[in-house]
Every structure is written in structure tokens, then in C-alpha cells.
Amino acid sequence: MKKKLVSVMLTTAMSAALLAGCGQQAAQEVAETATDAAETVAETATDAAETVADTAADATEAVAEDIDYGSGEVKVWVADNVVDFTNEQIAAFQAEHPEMSGYTFTVEAVGEGDAAGNMITDVEAGADIYAFAQDQIARLVTAGALEVVEDSNAEAIKAQNDAGAVGAATVGGTLYAYPLTSDNGYFLYYDKSVVTDPSTLEGIVADCEAAGKNFYFEINSGWYQTAFFFGTGAELTYDTDDAGNFTKCNSTYASDAGVVALKEIAELASSKAFQNGSAISNATNVGAIVDGTWDAQAAKDLFGDNYACAKLPTFEGADGKTYQMSGFGGFKLLGVKPQEDEGKLAVCDALAAYLSSEEVQLARYNAVGWGPSNLNAQQSDAVKADEALSALADQLQYTIPQGQYPGDYWSLATSLGDSIIAGEITAASSDDDFMKALTDFQATCESYAQ
Q: Is 370 exposed, middle or buried (0-12, 13-18, 19+ CB in 10 A)?
């Protein structure tokens, strides 16, 4: 069903150059062009905002005349820690849109990790609008649980949000969701009284060993493992069709680059400082840990005045070359369920656009610390001053936006890491042993797309 609400919910607009890429060359290009890009954004953002302001009133009147919104109930699922915040924002939305007063809005606490499973189990009984983790989008599309974003709203999303978030909301070239955050990645938290130089993995491990402290890295996770594999240039992605089905696995893990990565994981695991894990709340005697922004406050509480953050380090591979650790970038998205009633669909679209707008993303950051995907919000003084988000921003220069992966991939990656933790593969294993493990791993990954 065609959605008619287009630009009603656009409260700001901007033009910005989108920088994407990974690896050391991309990082150098970002550094060389950052000043010019910032000036371009500053010069064009005001003009773009004024253009939207000039047309917003007319657009609102036109849409209001065209659509009979009707009445009903809209169910919204968000994480528990933003339920109150979302209720406050919905109240502001209702005040701005009396033409939609026939609707009541119910906000329920369903986390991003659970929302997709619940929706897929029973789409009809699921929420009308729901937040979910980006790695679930393929399953949701296949289950018919996501409405395609209307063309004009899609254009605004692409212009106003960073490229990684837009890519995460896209399946088969079609935009299916509204980006909420660009903060689901990992980087280094460390005790600066222990780690003197966080730029190299060898230095971090040596400092932790010397101080009798632990270095935490979750090597049996398919999410964290990619820091090594993508860092050496190994590839593992999946192609999907318009329905979200996996059509092809693109993997070069069974390669020299893959062997260097797996050897480095085994080398790290051989250190007396190594501990497998990524949750600082479960860690003890910590010198450093690879974790995400969600644990920033716990890290601050643990390290106190010695709290520090940095991008992931480089490491020297078994081939003598230096590699920058890479990995996944992840995002929170907001989806709208397909609706039979055109008026209700328009209301859902309007609310989703509002909850993912620049102002609300920035307010959400101020309330609960979620890092915005909106380009203007990312340039706010508060966001730029956040140490954890700044470290993540540095790291995201080297990462690959996480696409869609089969559920079985994550279990398989856990098994690969467990084989190292259990000592089945060690730093002393032969190249043939490493290659065999990776060949088996890659063949299984490829079987998931057949």
C-alpha cells in the first residue's frame, strides 16, 4: 500500500559529504579532507534547513487535507531504558499533530535483541513500530514484518544519516527502516595507569602482563573475531535478494590473510593476561577490555580517574606486516509493520520519522547516551565531547558496516573461537592446521547460502 506522508516530519535538513571506507588508506583520506568536509556541512546546513522551514507548513496542510487518519491504537516496542523517554517524545509528537488525535499510543519494553524474534513469531500480534538490531533486518523482511520506507522519506533518511546506518537499513537496494543510532561497535577501554600506549596489541598485552592485570577480548564471538580477520584483509559477507534470502557467501577466510588473523587470535589467547569476554561488568582485575559504548558508565566507574578509551590497536602478524584491527559497525533501527489501514500507516510513518529525527536522536543521546546516526546530531558539542563515542568514531574508520548474516554463522564462529580456548588450535599449530580449520569454516559458511 502506498504511503502518502512524505515530508511532514522533516524538522531539519542538511547536505553533507558522506565518507565511507576502511583500512589505513581510507583513514588518511578522512584526515586530509575532514576540515573541508566540516566547512561544507557548516555552509550548506543552514540553507538546507531554511528550505525545509519555508515549505514545511504548506506540506503539512496538503497532507492533512489528503489523508483521513481515522482512529485506533499504535503499539510501540523499545528497549526498557528508553520507555519513559519514548513516552515523552510521543506526547510531544501528539501535541504537534492534533490531526492524529484519534490514535492512542502504547509503549512496551521489548529490547532490540528480542523484538525481531517476537515479530517473526507472530507479525499480526507484534508492534506497529519497533526498534531492532540491524543484523535482524533480513529475517524481518523475509517474514513480511517491515514496510518499505516511502520514497520521499527514504531520500531524507539517506541525506541526513551516516552511510553505515543507511546501509544497515537497506536490503536488496530497498530501504526498510529508520536509523536510530550509529554506536554499536567496539573499541578499547583501558586503565591509563596500566597501559602506557594503547596503539599496539603487543604493547597492551605486555603492559597488562607486567602489571598482573587482565586483557579481555571475546575471541569466541563472530562479532568480535572480525576485528582480526577484516584487519588482515580477509572477507566474509553475504548477498541477499529483495526478500532477504541469502543468495551467496563471499568469503576469503581460507587464505593467507585468514591464517595470519587466526594465528594472531591464538597468540593473544596464549598470553597470561588474556581473558575471554567483552562485558566489563563481568570482568575482574582489568587492565584493558574491548567493549562497546553501552558499557561506558561501567568502565568509568571501574577505572575512575584512570579511565581512557581508544580505537582498536594495530598488531604485527606472523608474516611481519602490521595490521590495523577492524571489525563490524552496528546500528539500532526503527521499523514499521505493514498496515491494512492507510490512515494508520501514515500515522506510524509520521511517528517513526519523528522518533528518528535529528532533535530526538540528540535528546535520546542526552537522556541515555545512545550515539546518533544523524549527521547534524553527530556534530553537536555534547556528542563530540563523549570519550567513548569519539573512540568509536575513530574505530569506525576501519570497520565494515555489518550486513546480514545467517543465524548459524554466529554459532559456527563461537565454535572456531572455542577451539582456541580449548587448546585444540594453539599459537604453535602448523600453518596446515590453521588452514584446515579455516577451510572447514569457510565451506560451512558457504553452505548457508545454498
A: buried
Can you list the residues of the chain whose pLDDT is less than 70? 1-66, 242-244
Cβ count near 309 (within 10 Å): 25
Q: For the purposes of burial, counting CB atoms within 10 Å of the CB of 387, is it exposed (0-12), middle (13-18) or buried (19 or more)? A: middle
Spatial separation of the C-alpha atoms in residues 140 and 339, rounded to whole Å? 15
Phi, psi for residue 359 in degrees, rounded to 5: -60, -40
Amino acid (1-letter code) at residue 183: D
Q: Which CATH number fits domain 24-180+332-372: 1.10.3720.10, 3.40.190.10, 1.10.10.10, 2.170.120.30?
A: 3.40.190.10
DSSP SS3 for 226: helix
Q: What radius of gyration, in Å, describes the C-alpha atoms of the chain?
A: 23
In 3D space, the residue among 312, 301, 293 whose CA is nearest the CA of residue 371 turns out to be 293
pLDDT in tens, 21-51: 333 343 444 344 434 444 443 444 434 434 4
What is the per-residue pLDDT for 155? Answer: 95
How much is the pTM? 0.68
CATH pick for 187-328+400-447 out of 3.40.47.10, 3.40.250.10, 3.40.720.10, 3.40.190.10: 3.40.190.10
| Helices (H), ranges, 221-322 | 226-232, 256-269, 296-303
With vertex at residue 253, the alpha carbon angle to CA 248 and CA 254, rounded to the nearest 5 degrees, is: 105
Bridge partners for 77 per DSSP: 108, 130
